[in-house]
């Protein structure tokens, strides 16, 4: 039934908690839980379908609040076994929601501005959330190797998660990646393989490997485990609402790479409404891109339903996907909720990184510069209402993209004397 | 009465919660709370004295457990006002206590091995804990500039904390620091001043500035605010015990730079015993140094009570204090508790960083390599009992000391074909 065979488990023995099946987002066709990602009927993307029918709202809320300070407090809403918190994993999540009053003052936001700072995750990006789901799926399907194609954050997240779980990891990257990024991924001791070719070549090779006997027992977190993996982004929505006191924000600004995160944040918010954990009221979702890779923003502004691929050229490497798989879904969500998709230049990204750092002490990756920069632009052009409660996502860590702010430096150089100090005008 | 005058507050109006006075560690002389650090009677170090007499154990435990997921759950035990969590600060702490079963297996630990991973703090080192205390003291004393001398982690922690609080920051560093470290500190937008000279020159200059009118209104976190600052390290002890289910560990391995952290971890454990929050039972504290800067380890092994200064030469820069102020206290604690002080070579530090990364997915700073490496050595030489519950501190993040593992790299480079993959022996 499934496109690929399941290594050592069938749906009847797979325990992924409330996950009941995989369901096609396009045609609704359902298949048993397994390491598959495309609908056999229409080739649409598969996503996890749940059975939440047994949950009572108050009991669920109390269970979550009594849970661990990690994404596993939401285990009843994720495709993971009930005892997931007891298994060796990185326990990501429950990152700080920073009330950003000084940033709000600079941007003119009066309705409450928050930064969800995912740099506090174990490998310092939101990728730990999604990889943690893929890891549980890999265990459930009997996979022994965790794998992915990556150009950065994901390589480290997969290497670290596999190390902690005692699984082999084998991560594929373009062979000419910067040395710093190679070190961050290689330190976890898994196999790190450089592919002679572009990132597209790396992806193509991974797809080939999945269909080959050589790839048997391999879970590619963002390919054959993608339906599970993607669910991890729902936890951003859960945490934001719980940290706001079980309230929906009015507006939320999410970065767009493949677009998956934005669609799952929306899914998470809708689930909380359906489960009665938050009040049912409108919210707006805004997408943020870099101008140098803005296929979704371009389509949004042109009123298109489809996304025309672009060749990325931006410092926001973690968002540089020129042909985003979930682009059409993002357009739909932005329009349905009354949001928008906007983009900012590399210069605006750098300015926004510095603005966030100097107002709130949060040093964001370039992707965080994109969301903060887009928030500013959306306020200026009147699309984002500054009188409403607004949450901006920072999905990564500035330490990983130091080059973006390499121009930052010393205010002054002085001799170690008070006279020299006074001459420099620092007193 | 105080050595320096208090900017805009006197002890009677200073609200630092349960902090009652400053008390000399040598002679016990007490002075009112203020920005002073040395005893006017004997020049011994001042530390915070508390009034915990009003606390009932059960009420206190419940209050802590109901508190925020940060160090502020322990506000009743820290020199901070009761409403500290509502003030703009980085809310550090409540970092992961990783049950390190795979590392335990490699080291032969059977009694339970845990890594307290402080890389999850906002600026990714334990310095956020101590700076957060200094920030509250600075606010209480009416200081408007937060300052420090630093060669790394502290500069970023101070810059970020001041930015978030809306205070000016002015951080002094040697002018020839590596560009990466300069960027990490400069990004928060405060003044970052390069001093033409060594780190010793920087420190000497800071002491001069404190005594000069030009330094009026300036809080140097690790000089005139040091008594408050140092208390932040107690929270490591509190968190470890609470995360173990309000149990004391049997053994704990702490890195030594100035030695302050180790003495405050001991103070925190003793407070928990005195408050009845944990059972009164013996525990052993072990100190960890790099061989290239091992004044305390050398003194311990020689049976000395005093510490002879060394000129540091090690990759563990964050521990490279050749003349550690709290060295004698560390020796006393290690001996009193039945612990030890040990050191490891740079090669052993690198091996330990890789060991921790490949077994637990935790990428530690060189200081974490020191504690893990020393733990291994202490087990090998029989000083640490592998059948007892042991906690190892990782106080910083590997992303900040990438050079230490720069040799780590690709397992293989292949063409994007299955044949090339098979030839490389990766299947």
From TrEMBL, chains A, B:
The keyword Lyase applies. Its cofactor is pyridoxal 5'-phosphate. It holds the Pfam family PALP. SUPFAM superfamilies: Tryptophan synthase beta subunit-like PLP-dependent enzymes (SSF53686). Its EC number is 4.2.3.1. Keywords: Lyase, Pyridoxal phosphate. Residues 92-396 form the Tryptophan synthase beta chain-like PALP domain. It is an enzyme of class 4 (lyase). GO terms for molecular function: threonine synthase activity. CDD domains: Thr-synth_1 (cd01563). The keyword tRNA-binding does not apply. PANTHER family: L-THREONINE DEHYDRATASE CATABOLIC TDCB, THREONINE DEHYDRATASE, MITOCHONDRIAL-RELATED. Belongs to the threonine synthase family. This is Threonine synthase. It comes from Streptomyces thermoviolaceus subsp. thermoviolaceus. The lineage of its organism: Bacteria, Bacillati, Actinomycetota, Actinomycetes, Kitasatosporales.
């Amino acid at each position: 039934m499934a496109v690929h065979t399941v290594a050592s488990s069938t749906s009847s023995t797979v325990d992924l908690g409330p996950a009941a099946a995989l369901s096609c987002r396009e045609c609704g066709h359902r298949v048993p839980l397994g390491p598959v990602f495309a609908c056999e009927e229409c080739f649409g993307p598969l996503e996890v379908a749940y059975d939440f029918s047994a949950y009572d709202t108050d009991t669920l809320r109390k269970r979550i609040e009594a849970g661990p300070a990690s994404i596993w407090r939401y285990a009843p809403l994720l495709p993971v076994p009930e005892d997931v918190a007891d298994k060796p994993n990185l326990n990501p999540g429950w990152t700080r929601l920073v009330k950003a009053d000084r940033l709000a003052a600079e941007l003119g936001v009066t309705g409450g501005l928050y930064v969800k700072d995912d740099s506090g995750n174990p490998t310092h990006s939101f990728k730990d959330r999604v990889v943690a789901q893929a890891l549980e799926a890999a265990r459930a399907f009997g996979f022994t190797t965790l794998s992915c194609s990556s150009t950065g954050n994901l390589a480290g997240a997969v290497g670290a998660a596999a190390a902690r779980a005692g699984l082999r990891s084998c991560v594929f990257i373009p062979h000419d990646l910067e040395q710093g990024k190679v070190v961050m991924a290689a330190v976890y001791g898994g196999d790190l393989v450089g592919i002679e070719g572009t990132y597209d070549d790396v992806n193509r090779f991974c797809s080939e490997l999945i269909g080959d006997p050589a790839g048997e027992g391999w879970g590619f977190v963002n390919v054959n485990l993608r339906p599970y993996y993607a669910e991890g982004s729902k936890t951003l929505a859960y945490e934001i609402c719980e940290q706001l006191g079980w309230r929906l924000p009015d507006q939320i600004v999410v970065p767009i790479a493949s677009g998956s995160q934005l669609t799952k944040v929306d899914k998470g918010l809708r689930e909380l409404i359906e489960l009665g954990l938050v009040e049912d009221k409108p919210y707006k979702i805004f997408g943020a891109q870099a101008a140098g890779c803005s296929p979704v923003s371009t389509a949004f502004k042109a009123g298109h339903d489809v996304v025309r691929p672009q060749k990325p050229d931006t410092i926001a490497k973690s968002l540089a996907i020129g042909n985003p798989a979930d682009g059409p879904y993002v357009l739909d969500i932005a329009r349905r909720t009354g949001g928008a998709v906007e983009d900012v230049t590399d210069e605006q990204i750098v300015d926004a990184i510095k603005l966030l750092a100097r107002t709130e002490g949060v040093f964001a990756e370039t992707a965080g510069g994109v969301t903060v920069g887009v928030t500013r632009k959306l306020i200026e052009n009147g699309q984002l209402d500054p009188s409403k409660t607004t949450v901006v996502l920072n999905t990564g860590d500035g330490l990983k993209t130091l080059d973006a702010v390499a121009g930052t430096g010393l205010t002054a150089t002085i001799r170690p004397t008070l006279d020299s100090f006074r001459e420099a005008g620092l007193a």
